[in-house]
Write a structure and sequence with these properties.
The complex is a heterodimer of chains A (602) and B (351). Chain A is an alpha/beta fold and 602 residues long. Chain A has helices spanning 22-35, 84-89, 121-128, 132-151, 155-166, 170-190, 213-223, 238-251, 270-283, 293-309, 336-340, 357-374, 384-388, 412-417, 463-479, 506-518, 535-543, 557-566, 586-599; strands spanning 9-17, 40-45, 54-62, 73-78, 91-100, 115-119, 208-212, 228-231, 263-266, 287-291, 313-319, 350-352, 377-383, 390-394, 447-449, 488-490, 497-502, 523-528, 530-531, 547-551, 573-577. Chain A has 19 helices and 21 strands. With 351 residues, chain B is α/β, with parallel strands linked by helices. Classes of the chains: A alpha/beta (602), B alpha/beta (351). Strand 15 (447-449) of chain A pairs parallel with strand 2 of chain B. The complex binds thiamine diphosphate and iron/sulfur cluster.
Chain lengths: 602, 351
């Protein structure tokens, strides 16, 4: 927060133009800091276009390990003239602005109270490199070099990374090295380096990795044993299936024959993608699709069918701002209600809510277990911030004794032992009937139909049979409450209020709670991780006369869901809503809590 | 097929196929379609074809969308798993099932409404993927289940039950399939068992998507305005005590074996359809001439029937997907999960 920046505790950002190759320089900086053992987060704020529009990359360094989006930036590298006026305003008072001094200083860049550093990146690159393409691309590496000097990034770490990346292409390696030196040497020669806030090696990232949620979820699907993936491209979910493909190529290709132990179908649209995974799930494969809000809308009819006919399938929803195109490169948590009650008729669905890539990995595996155990669609509600940004998380672990929970599946031998197989008969009272897979033979065959059916799977329009069926589905849903991931709850002694949140808001809310405590406001904390809500969720809400429900949508969807499902009064839950499309900051939460407490003394 | 339930006892003298199964073993639930619906004749042909092919019923999967036609899957092979999915989306469900388990025989049944309007995209893409399946379109030119609206295959000039004439050009599934590169394209008539059964057998045996368009009259909504026996007329002239739909019982239309190339079939509405079988010297391996044949028939107001095109060397979906011979559902978990050590190594890459 304001004025606190110092060693290993500050934030900086780069304002560039997308399509100019800045992503690799930004990634290089972030990873170098991480390799110096310092906790770091990077947020890519990018436009929905391929080339030519403003894009920002924000890097936050936090010795205390906070990973939320920074509330303030100490230094801005302004390389996009189109956003000078905006960028210069975002520097905190007393902070720095770096710009390309190849051209005379833009009047927009003048501001009292900040230090402006000009570096002629453009000129240096034109003088050093021949090709236009190199001149543009390497300007990014040049600013990385300048930042390395200003912020004291370990140059040996950077050199090692460049060698790792371009080791096999000596020409490229040399060019990158040269560009890096250009920026580095210029800054060293002209400015007092390092700046008052800068980096010192630490030892706090040894057990961590930098990874994005889409990659993590894809890895989860591989580890869960998913064999069929179907999808239709949509930002910000696309990379997930691409990563799944990459991992399958690595782990699931038969070495001798080159044949695949997986099937990835790029469908003609989301309707087809849903149909494919439902067909595959019915046939007995672990199948999933990755999509975003608009895709979920198109899948609704199939989701209802799968729910009503007890078919497992996993839907990974990487949420973004809607509708249609909406703001596809901005994050949100605005699909909560549409996932919970997706489709027509009486439906309710299991949802897991990962907060970071590590949970994307773990919860994707859980989602497959839940889908098969409860024979129903399961949603993994990720979002753009989690899915597409690199997060620092603990290394993933795997227990080799894990076996998939295939749920109640009768094979030929099981069928031998029973008189008659009835597809929808609730023998155990948990609402879950045993299923058979196509091809099993004997008495195992049955007919999947969206039309009314009785417990034997036979067609009927009998009112009692219909009610019996939907009541069973409800029983099944309710039984899942204790099997979805449990909420994470923490208490502070003397807590006055409760903070309730979900998914990727975790980092900001957790940090906000620490800031509030330092100011004497003690809070209890609960992050909901699964739907249906478990008994613990109900208890937490019951214990607090007042809670703040923090989420990223306009209409307080989580609060509505809690109210509908648990009957908690709306007045007992104050919404804190951020639907700007940007990752949540701790300051947003702190300010909202304080404002409210000042208005309504607790 | 009839709508009358039959006793479950087997006739001791019934003929059995190589698996020791009788025709009755290939039947399904009692049909709930209108008496005389062409779709029931298709069901009978499917029963015959599957019996003759000696398919193990439990190794077949019956797939369909929504519509009267899509109900067909319930009426044959009761020992097979069946999936009556959602309107127009049978192809995707079948693609997924086939991706998961390539070891089964997939029999997909759809209607002209199901496949040529709401499901046109899915039909096209299943063809493009060349899913290994039989794809039957029971084509009656109308939406039966929603009571008689024109479907996309309705001919120009045909009239609806309300007497409105259809003005839009039809989509011909056979021309569509030929254009999209379908590897097996055939057309037949529900009442022509002689022709239909062998076509279905060849289609099931084909590796890849085999599209069979079957002209299958709808007894209830094929009637025309001028007819005093028409549905509309009956409705108008009936004195309603309580509102109830009235569907006159009709007989299935069949065509006798005549050995002639062109056969004229009278539909329930009095309309006449001219079916032209492919000639004995017809070459079904040439896509261009198949297309030309269908078009030439159209120009003569005839419907080309028979096996129109086949490419036995086409690559099917699993060839494109390069999957292992074992069905994916049969792969043990150990063959799929890379395990702890691999994860440890992978994690180092994200440092
Ligand atoms: C999403 C959706 N839209 C509309 C319907 C209503 N509907 C059911 S069957 C049908 C048409 C079926 O026509 P066709 O496929 O030609 O079959 P037929 O009944 O003529 O055999 C329609 C429109 C539906 N079930 N689902
Ligand atoms: S309405 Fe037409 S298509 Fe449907 S069952 Fe009756 S005759 Fe067949």
């Amino acid at each position: 927060m304001s004025g606190k920046s110092g060693i290993n505790d500050f934030a900086f950002k780069m304002g560039t133009v997308n399509g100019t190759g800045s992503a690799s320089a930004n990634g290089l900086l972030m990873q170098a800091i991480f390799r110096m053992g310092i906790p770091v987060t990077g947020k890519n704020i990018f436009p929905s276009n391929i080339q030519g529009l403003p894009t920002w990359y924000e890097i936050r360094v936090s010795k205390d390990g906070y990973t939320a989006r920074p509330s303030e930036v100490d230094l801005v590298v302004a390389l996009n003239p189109a956003t000078y006026a905006k960028d210069v305003k975002t520097v905190r008072p007393g902070g720095y602005l770096v710009y390309d001094s190849t051209w005379p200083m833009d009047p927009d860049l003048v501001r009292e109270g900040i230090t402006i550093l000009g570096i002629p990146f453009g000129r240096m690159c034109v003088e050093t490199f021949e090709k236009d393409r190199d001149r543009t691309l390497l300007r990014n590496i040049a600013y990385a070099g300048a930042l390395a000097a200003l912020l004291k990034i370990d140059t040996a770490v950077i050199e090692a990374m460049l060698t790792e990346k371009f080791g096999k292409k000596p020409k490229l390696l040399a060019a990158n090295h040269t560009a890096f030196k250009l920026g580095y040497d210029y800054a060293m020669a002209h400015f007092q380096c390092p700046l008052p806030f800068h980096l010192e090696p630490m030892d706090r990232t040894g057990d961590s990795i930098l990874i994005d949620g889409n990659t993590a979820a894809a890895l989860g699907a591989v580890y869960a044993g998913a064999t069929v993936g179907a999808w239709y491209p949509i930002t910000p979910a696309t990379a997930l299936m691409e990563q799944f493909k990459g991992f399958c190529e690595k782990y699931r290709v038969d070495k001798e024959t080159g044949l695949h132990k997986y099937a990835i179908l790029q469908a003609e649209d989301e309707l087809a993608a849903a149909g494919i995974i439902i067909g595959a799930g019915w046939a007995g494969a672990r199948a999933f699709t990755n999509t975003s809000g608009p895709g979920i809308s198109l899948m609704q009819e199939f989701i209802g069918l799968a729910y009503y006919t007890d078919i497992p399938a996993v839907f990974i929803d990487v949420q973004r701002c809607g509708p249609a195109t909406g703001m596809p490169t901005r994050t949100q948590q605005a699909d909560l209600l549409s996932l919970a009650y997706a489709s027509h008729g009486d439906t309710k669905h299991l949802i897991v809510f990962p907060a970071d890539p590590r949970e994307c990995f773990e919860m994707t595996v859980q989602a497959f277990d839940l889908a098969e155990r409860f024979q129903t669609p399961v949603f993994v509600a990720s979002d753009l911030d989690i899915g597409m940004n690199d997060w620092m998380v603990k290394r993933f672990e795997w227990d080799d004794s894990y076996r998939p929970d295939r749920g109640k599946v009768l094979d030929a031998a099981d069928l031998e032992k029973i008189q008659r197989f009835s597809r929808y008969l609730d023998v155990d009272g948990d609402g879950i009937a045993a299923r058979t897979l196509p091809g099993v033979g004997g008495k195992g065959a049955y007919f999947v139909r969206g039309s009314g059916h009785d417990k034997h799977g036979q067609y009927t329009e009998d009112s009692d049979a219909y009610q019996e069926l939907v009541d069973r589905l409800k029983r099944k849903f309710e039984g899942a409450a204790e099997h979805v991931p449990a909420p994470i709850i923490s208490h502070q002694p003397g807590a006055e209020v409760g903070l309730v949140t979900i998914g990727g808001c975790e980092a900001a809310v957790h940090e906000a709670a620490d800031i509030l405590r330092a100011e004497g406001i003690h809070t209890d904390y609960m992050r909901i991780r699964g739907f249906p809500f478990s008994e613990e969720v109900r208890k937490f809400l019951g214990r607090h006369e007042h809670t703040f429900v923090i989420e990223q949508n306009r209409d307080a969807q989580l609060r509505s869901l809690v109210q509908i499902e648990l009957g908690v009064a709306r007045d007992a839950m104050t919404p804190i809503l951020d639907y700007s499309g940007m990752p949540l900051t701790a300051a947003t939460v702190v300010n909202a809590v304080k404002t409210h407490l000042a208005e309504v003394p607790a | 097929m009839t709508s009358i339930a039959k006793p479950p006892v087997k006739h001791p003298t019934a003929r059995t196929n190589g698996r020791g199964l009788t025709l009755r073993d290939y039947e399904g639930a009692m049909s709930t379609l209108c008496a005389g619906c062409g779709h029931d004749s298709v069901t009978a042909a499917l029963v015959q074809a599957a019996w003759e092919l000696e398919i193990e019923p439990h190794r077949a999967a019956k797939m369909s969308g929504i519509g009267c036609s899509s109900k067909t899957t319930a009426y044959f092979m009761k020992q097979s798993h069946g999936f009556n999915s959602v309107h127009g989306r049978m192809p995707s469900v079948t693609s997924g099932a086939a991706a998961a388990n390539k070891g089964l025989t997939y029999i997909g049944i759809s209607g002209d409404g199901d496949s040529l309007s709401i499901g046109l995209g899915q039909l096209s893409h299943a063809i493009r993927r060349n899913v290994n399946m039989l794809y039957v379109i029971e084509n009656n030119g109308v939406y039966g289940l929603t009571k008689g609206q024109f479907s996309a295959s309705a001919d120009i000039g045909s009239t609806s039950k309300k007497g409105e004439a259809n003005e839009q050009a039809p989509i011909d599934p056979v021309l569509l399939a030929l254009t999209l590169g379908c590897t097996f394209v055939a057309r037949s008539f529900s009442g022509d068992k002689q022709q239909l059964v062998p076509i279905l057998k060849a289609a099931i045996a084909h590796k890849g998507l085999a599209l069979v368009d079957v002209i299958s009259p709808c007894v209830s909504f094929n009637d025309h305005e001028g007819s005093t026996k028409s549905y509309a007329y009956t409705r108008e002239h009936e004195v309603e005590a309580v509102h109830a739909d009235f569907i006159p019982l009709k007989r299935e239309i069949t065509v006798p074996e005549t050995g002639e190339e062109v056969r004229v079939v009278e539909m329930h509405d009095g309309a006449r359809v001219r079916l032209r079988s492919t000639a004995t010297d017809y070459d079904p391996t040439n896509r261009e001439s198949a297309y030309a044949h269908v078009r030439a028939c159209q120009a003569r107001h005839e419907i080309a029937t028979g096996l129109l095109f086949v490419d036995e060397n086409g690559r099917d979906m699993h060839d494109y997907l390069k999957t292992v011979p074992t069905p994916l559902v049969d792969l043990p978990f150990e063959a799929l999960c890379p395990g702890k050590d691999a994860l440890g190594k992978l994690m180092d890459r994200y440092r």
